[in-house]
């Protein structure tokens, strides 16, 4: 049974430049700030950055993996607070997702409050996902 204050397992995702190229192909977002150091620098970025929707998708994966098969995110909100810089190395960068059950609502839905970091930097702020009622009973 899920309880308020319960922590979900910490998940760490590795993002490489290869992942950015694959995500660009899948999403149709071919903006060169996601693959070219010179183009990223030209717009004032310190380097190539991950797609924001890729970061959000990985966070949703952490939540639904915790909730279990059939889990459905019915609400999701966040703010981008820092870019996820992806170096041109085989190791790439790690995105770490931590979460706590913040609320169990009267309808049975579960709000999970999330912290998302790349290294020591918080890259997403005020991140929350709400799982539909049916999903709240299936987590492991």
TrEMBL record:
Pfam families of this UniProt entry?
MaoC_dehydratas
Q: Which residues form the MaoC-like domain?
A: 11-112
Query: Which organism does this sequence originate in?
Result: Streptomyces enissocaesilis
Q: Which domain of life is it from?
A: Bacteria
> What SUPFAM superfamilies does the record tag this protein with?
Thioesterase/thiol ester dehydrase-isomerase (SSF54637)
Family label:
Belongs to the enoyl-CoA hydratase/isomerase family.
Put simply, this protein is called MaoC family dehydratase
């Amino acid at each position: 049974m899920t309880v308020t204050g319960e922590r979900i397992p910490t998940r760490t995702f590795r993002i490489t430049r290869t992942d950015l190229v694959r995500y660009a192909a899948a999403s149709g977002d071919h903006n060169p700030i996601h693959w070219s150091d010179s183009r990223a620098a030209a717009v004032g970025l310190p380097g190539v950055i991950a797609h924001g929707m890729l970061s959000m998708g990985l966070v949703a994966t952490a939540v639904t993996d915790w909730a279990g098969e059939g889990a459905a995110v019915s609400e999701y909100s966040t703010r981008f607070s820092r870019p996820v810089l992806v170096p041109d190395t085989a190791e790439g960068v790690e995105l770490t997702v931590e979460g706590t059950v913040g609320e169990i609502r009267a309808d049975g839905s579960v709000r999970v409050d999330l912290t998302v970091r790349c290294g020591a930097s918080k890259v997403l702020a005020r991140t929350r996902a709400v799982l539909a009622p049916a999903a709240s009973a299936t987590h492991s």
